[in-house]
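hey m, so remember when u said the tokens were messed up on ur end? i reran from scratch. heres the input so u can diff it against urs
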Amino acid sequence: GQQLQAGQVLGHVGVSGNVSRPQLHFEVRRDGKPVDPLKVLRF
């Protein structure tokens, strides 16, 4: 994966495949292990 800096675009929400509304899936990992995104994201 890529490392992102604060303010960098993570992705764009859209509808593709078999979904009924726009979605964005992402994961946060540190050293290859999943991390709770709420612990590292600032809103």
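this time it looks ok to me. The longest strand covers residues 29-30. if urs says something different then somethings off w ur setup not the seq
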